[in-house]
Amino acid sequence: MDSLWFRRFGTEESGAVRLICFPHAGGSAASYVPLLRCLSPRFDALAVQYPGRQDRRREEPAADIAGLAGRIAAALRPATGRPYALFGHSMGALVAFETARALRELGAPAPLRLFLSGRGAPTRQPGPHDRVPDDGAILATVRRLGGTSAAALADPDLLELALPVLRADYRALAAYRPAPGEPLETPVTVLTGDTDPVVAPAEVVRWRDFTRSGCEVRVFPGGHFYLDHCPAAVADVVLDGVRAIQEAAGR
């Protein structure tokens, strides 16, 4: 695996299905450590490290969602010879979706399943929660959503590091428009918290319009960062979703 883009928090699980996880706005690969620990050794689980954060902090953050996904897809393409799945949370759900589309354009085998968490389906106009005009609005949004990112912003030094990345990520979200294209041939599992303040149920179910292979919705107790509190339950959903595809294919 490309060491610039992908982080494995543990040992490589030879022969296991590979799961690639995409972080939320302002997030890093490390945000997936609790989930990845629950998935090992059942999956060879890795997380994407976007430019501009942690060990890539000297790089410019990505300017747009589709462009970022295209770069990730190019790095991931050589590793798609074994079964794999994609998991994205919040902004990461859009990046995972666009990565699946970019991999299709590259002629790569399709992922077994796409797991899209904490995000409604793409629309032709940015949602109100993606339009944040200044730093004050960004910080208010992050604090309202909660999670580890909100707690970290109480530290002035961490805030100084986090703000450039958050600005770039929210600019990319506000500018995102899904390009026209055929639905994916990959089944989708959508995961959401039952009290998520930014993801309406109607937005969640519209993901079914972006695949020809079925879309299921799984609801968990909690808000936008519900998965911080139940990584084992989320890992079980991932396991069941991949296992169902493998059994249907007779693998």
What can you tell me about this protein's structure?
Helices cover 37% and strands 14% of the residues. The chain has one domain (6-124, 177-248): Alpha/Beta hydrolase fold, catalytic domain (Rossmann fold). It has a 7-stranded mixed beta sheet, with helices on both faces. Helix 1 packs across helix 8 and helix 2 (65-76) packs across helix 3. It is an alpha/beta fold. The mean pLDDT is 92.
Quick recap of the structure?
It is built from eight helices and seven strands; from the N terminus they run E-E-H-E-H-E-H-E-H-H-H-E-H-E-H. The chain is α/β, with parallel strands linked by helices and 251 residues long. The radius of gyration is 17 Å and the shape is globular.
Output the keywords.
single chain; 251 residues; alpha/beta; Rossmann fold; seven-stranded mixed sheet; 8 helices; 7 strands
Topology:
Blueprint: E1 6-7, E2 17-22, H1 33-39, E3 43-48, H2 65-76, E4 84-89, H3 91-105, E5 114-117, H4 135-145, H5 147-152, H6 156-175, E6 188-193, H7 201-205, E7 215-220, H8 231-248
Parallel strand pairs: 2-3, 2-4, 4-5, 5-6, 6-7
Antiparallel strand pairs: 1-3
